[in-house]
Amino acid sequence: MSKKKARESNPSEVLRARAAGDRDASPAGAKLGRKAYEAELALLQAELVSMQEWVKASGAKVCVVFEGRDTAGKGGTIKRIVERVSPRVFRVVALPSPTDRERSQMYIQRYITHFPAAGEVVIFDRSWYNRAGVERVMGFCTPAQTDRFLEQVPAVEKAIVDSGIILLKYWLEVGSDEQTRRIENRIHDPRKVWKLSDMDLESYSRWYDYSRARDAMFAASDTPWAPWNVAYTDSKRRGRLNVISHLLSQVPYEPLKAKDVELPERQAPGDYHAPALPPRFIPTPF
How far apart are CA 231 and CA 238, in angstroms? Predict the structure, then answer.
């Protein structure tokens, strides 16, 4: 059997080859249309279900951190990860600004309470790395606080990994021109105006401050036990597929075995009669 045919017979092997950047599995430079994207996404989402069942059965604990530039596609990628799996297993954490009480706590404290228990996958839509990114750039913390965080975070993440949690960190990177296009789209699209805040506009003007913050963060916290995984997302479709396939390649799950399921017969109506009360149907303008 040829290498290509062997891959086609085993979806998990196809995904692992793509995650490794195999050109045979993902032709470089080929245009990715909607139909091709949706077909690939369906395959990946089926594997996420396999991963979910393995996490439940094995009691594994998975923690996924998403960071990146504004408009880089964190929310869209997370949405595609969780839309076909169980919210009882996959949980998304997107914390608001800290309260006065939380500001008085140890910095990592409010994040630790959301860490996964056995059989759970927790996805952080932004994380403790706020201290190295937006808080540093926007002046919400002092330089000394940022330096202390960057000094301490490798040891904290070593403790997380040593506790048995699979920790995956993703940075989504988008080009400056594409970021401008996406922000302008948010300004003019009434479905997306909620994504645009005054802070987003202020952040937009500080491209190189964020670049410096990102570089310092990578230098301090890219470790063998918790490395940063970078995904370029100027193409949202390719970016999403690349992140999901890489995530799957980092979790040692077993492919889900298909079950032989037969529908049972439905019961007879017996003495059931439909009620005489008129139901309140909703209007049907479509």
Answer: 9
Here the tokens at position 79 are 């949405």
Q: Is the dihedral of CA 145, 169, 214, 185 positive or negative?
A: negative
Query: Are the CB atoms for 92 and 82 separated by under 8 Å?
Result: yes
Provide the CA 184 distance to its chain's centre, in angstroms: 24
Residues 9-18 have pLDDT tens digits of 454 554 455 4
Which position has the token pair 């369906």?
42
pTM: 0.85
Using CB atoms within 10 Å of the CB of residue 270, give its burial: 0 to 12 exposed, 13 to 18 middle, 19+ buried: exposed
Helix axes 74-82, 236-250, angle to 10 degrees: 50
pLDDT in tens, 160-176: 999 999 999 999 999 99
Count of CB atoms situated within 10 Å of the CB of 89: 20
Q: Do 78 and 92 meet the contact criterion of CB atoms below 8 Å apart?
A: yes
- From CA 73, how far away is CA 75, in angstroms rounded? 6
Q: Which residues pair with 93 in a beta bridge?
A: 124
β pairing state of 61-68 and 120-125: parallel
- Whole-angstrom distance, CA of residue 8 vs CA of residue 135: 46
| Number of neighbouring beta carbons within 10 Å of residue 86 | 13
The residue among 19, 45, 41 whose CA lies nearest residue 32 is: 41
Burial label, 214 (beta-carbon count in 10 A; 0-12, 13-18, 19+): buried
Q: Can you tell me which residue has the tokens 């393995």?
A: 54
* Beta carbons of 95 and 197 less than 8 angstroms apart: no
Q: Long-range contacts for 98-107 (Cβ within 8 Å, ≥24 apart)?
A: 107/131, 107/145, 107/149
Q: Please report, as a single letter, which amino acid is at residue 222.
A: D
